[in-house]
Amino acid sequence: MKKPPACEPLLELRGVAKAFGQVIALRDSTLALYPGSIHALVGENGAGKSTLVKIIAGLYRRDSGDFRYDGETVDFSTTAESKAAGIAVIYQEPTLFPDLSVTENIFMGRQPRGRLGRIDRGAMRAEVESLFTRLGVVMDPDRTADGLSIADQQMIEIAKAISLDARVLVMDEPTAALSGVEVERLFQVARALRDENRALVFISHRFDEVFALCDTITVMRDGSYVSTRAISETDPDSVVAEMVGREITDLFPKIETEAGEPLLVVEGLTSPGIFNDISFTVRAGEIVGLAGLVGAGRSEVARAVFGVDSYRTGTVTVAGTKVAKNKPTAAMRAGLALVPEDRRKQGLVLDSSVGRNTTSVILDSLAKLGIVTTGAENRAARPWAEKLEVKANALTTIAGTLSGGNQQKVVLGKWLATDPRVLIIDEPTRGIDVGTKSEVHRLLSTLASQGMGVLMISSELPEVLGMADRVVVMHEGRITATIDREDATQENVMRAATHSSSTESEHAA
C-alpha cells in the first residue's frame, strides 16, 4: 500500500465547527490531505462527513477553525471558488440535468467554443469519448441523462470531475450502486490519479473497498475528529469501534423462520427489451434476495410489480388477489410497499419535514373532518423515527438536510407505516453506516419473523447471502437461477449473475 509522501498537506482543516441553528453538525473536525495519497473518511451517518465535504466544496462556510489550501488560508463562499481552486466533489446522489445529453452534462457551464464563438460540440464529444475510454465505460455520449441507472449517473459525475483536472478529488460513496467490475475500473482510475500526485478523499461504508484502495484513514464520530492512521496500522474492527463507540458483533442478525403461505406471486412478467418471463414467489416469513449485476433488470422488475412501471404480459398476485398493473395505489391497497433505490428522487419530498415524509402515504388514515394536523403527523411518525434511530433534531427537521443514511431511514419508516404484507426494498443499506446496517438487517429479519414477506434487492453480495432465505438471480432481464439459503455461495450466485455456461437455471415455484 502506497504511503503518503512526506510533504506539506495540499488541503488541511483543523478544529472546524459548523452549526445550523441549534443543530451542531461539526464540533471539532480535522482533516489533512496530501498529494499522491488516497485518504478514507469514515464515520456513521450524522458523524459530519457530508458537512465537512460541503465546506471543502464551498457550499457551506465554517463557523470557526482553520482551512488552508495549497499553503494559504481560504474561505470558499461558493462552489465556483472551490472548483476554480482545483477541487472536485462527486456527491453520493447524482445531480444531472435529465433533459440534457451525457456530453452536455459533463461540460455544463464550460462548453468549448470555436473561432466564431459557437459551442464546439465535436470537441466536447471527442473529450467525452476519451474520458469514457479511460474509465472503461460504454455509453452513448449523445443520449439524454433521463432514465440512466444510478450506476451510469455516477460514472458521468466521475467523468465530469476527471475532466476538470482537479488537484483534490472527493468521492462520496461513489461505488454504492456499481457492480464489482465497475468498482475495479473506478479503483484503477483512482490509483492513476493518485500516481499523478493528486489528493483523493474516498468516503465509503464498505470497509473492503476502503482497505483495498486507501493509504490513510480518518475516523469521525458525532461531528468530531477521532483519529487518523495509515491503513497498514489499523483494521476494520478497530475502525468500527472508533466509529460507533461500541462493538458490532452481528452484522446479519438473521432470525430463522419457517416460511408460510405465498404472499407475493409473480408469474410470467414481461416488458420487451427490459425483462422477460419473470416468475417468483415470496412467502410469509421469508426474505427473498433479488441479485444480479447492475443493469440486470432487478429494479425494473420491482417497479413493475409495484405498478410504477407497466409491463406487457404476466400477473402479480398478493395474498390471492390479482393486482392491476401500472397502478401503485392498487398495489398499496393489496398490501405492497416499495422502498426505492433512488431515495432523493423517488422516496422523499426533500423540502418537507421528517414527520410529513414519514406519514405522506397514510394521510387519509390520520385525517379528521378532512384535516390532518401536524400533531397527528408527528404522533404517527415518532415511533418509526425512534425505532429506526433517525438522527434529526426534531420531526420538523427538513428531510433534505439529513445525511444520506438518515434519509434512507425516513423512506423506510414511511413505507413501514403502511403496515404492508410484502415489503419490496431496493438497496436497503446503500449509503448507510455499519452500525445502522446491522439495525436495518435486524428490523428486516424481525418483520419477516412476524409474518411479513420481504423482497430485498441488493448489489452487496454479503448482504444477500447473510439475509436471504432464497436468492433469485437475474442476468440481462431474465432469471437464471433460484438458490436456497443453504446452497447459496458467492461463487454460484456470481456464476448465475454472469450467466456462465456452467449455470443451470432454476425457477421459483
TrEMBL record:
Ribonucleoprotein listed as a keyword: no
Keywords: ATP-binding, Cell membrane, Membrane, Nucleotide-binding, Repeat, Sugar transport, Translocase, Transport
GO MF assignments: ATP binding
PROSITE patterns: ABC_TRANSPORTER_1 (PS00211), ABC_TRANSPORTER_2 (PS50893)
Domain of life: Bacteria
Residue ranges of domain ABC transporter in the record: 11-247, 246-501
A Pfam family reported for this protein in Swiss-Prot or TrEMBL: ABC_tran
Disordered: annotated segments: 487-509
Keyword Protein transport: no
Protein name: Sugar ABC transporter ATP-binding protein
Organism of this sequence: Leucobacter alluvii
